Amino acid sequence: MSEETLERFKPTGGLVSGGLAMAFALVIIAAWIRDRDSISDGLAAASLVAVVLVWAAALRPRVAVGEETLVFRNMFETVRIPVAAVEEITVRQVMAVRAGGKRYVSPAIGRSRKSLVRPNRMRFSSHLPGGGKQVNIEYADYVEDRIRQSAKDSRRRQGLPEPTAEAIAAEPHSVGVRREPAWPEIVAMVLALGLFIVAVVT
Question: Which residues contact 27 (CB under 8 A, 6 or more apart)?
Answer without folding.
Answer: none
